[in-house]
Amino acid sequence: MPLALLSLAIGAFGIGTTEFVIIGLLPDVAGTFGVSVPTAGWLVTGYALGVLVGAPVMTLLGTRISRKTMLMLLMGVFVVGNLLSAAAPTFLVMVAGRIVTSFAHGAFFGIGAVVAAELVAPKKRAGAIAMMFTGLTVANVVGAPLGTWVGQSFGWRTTFALVAMLGVVGLAGVALVVPPLPRQEQVALREELQAFRNVQVVLAMAMTVLGFGGVFAAVTYLAPMMTEMAGYSPGAVTWLLVLFGLGMVVGNLVGGRYADRALMPFLCATLGALALVLALFTVTAHHRVLAAVTITLIGALGFATVPPLQKRVLDQASGAPTLASAVNIGAFNLGNALSAWLGGLVIAAGLGYTAPSWIGALLALSALGLAVLSGRIERRAGVSEDEAETQLSSPRAAPSQP
Q: What CATH code would you report for 2-180+195-384?
């Protein structure tokens, strides 16, 4: 089973590279097409919205074939989208290429998370999900920084062409190493949609949107922020992305470990710390060393929320988890799109490149509020169930004597 999880991590590495590499290349792409940096931010927003739409659509289309076959088809879509981005003659075609690529993202992680969870014992599910997402986090340590360096040295089109080749490797890995899983039982669309009537599923997805959205509010415009405010050279952005990625790797592993122990307390503590660090980034962004430390902490705290939130959705939608799992991946990217859009608005309004970090802090704080609400609802439901069981098990009281 570790080899199967490793193969999923390889596919995640490719997807993570194409998702995050655009952060370091945003000024270069903007210069090529003659658009402003906030306008180029639509390459982030468009990708995120594509994940949101593509996750449920591609997941539902794949219900009639095996999960392994669907994962291979998704990697094929990923390759086509990156080739289109590499050859884009106009900015609109570039956006289209990003959207095509994004259609593979949500369904791959959604289906992959279900597969990873089914390969291990129930008490190890969060750890298995975290192992798959390790590919995404390692992409931030190796893939995105290397892609940024290649793009700055040889042109950003070369980066996307190489990412397409990485997708071919990911497809081969899934084909060769993932076991031939049996075709899943047909679950009616009504049953899949039933999960969204569970208030805890909805709250978990809302936490996903707001919590991880806070991270992207700060890092979408990281390149211009660090060059303009902290005084870093454009080439130094590569190493800052490495620090961000290292933080994500550590946060992902810690999140997977503690989500199997104390999910909600850990999630609340992490979201609170994330809100605080994002607020501090408005100050530390002006200092090179402090900015580097803060970027690492943002990566760690942000990605520490991923395994617990994904496990929370799988647990609450246990009867029909595939669609809910994929939609929650879309929720991560809805947060990315929302924060990138809001960040672009405050920058365009003349509030400066640090202003998006305030947006991120408010989003993370809102996610913390929802986590507290979710915990209270769960505790009240538990008390009500205990009271009902007590009433059913207690003997009938004898009638009082006159």
A: 1.20.1250.20
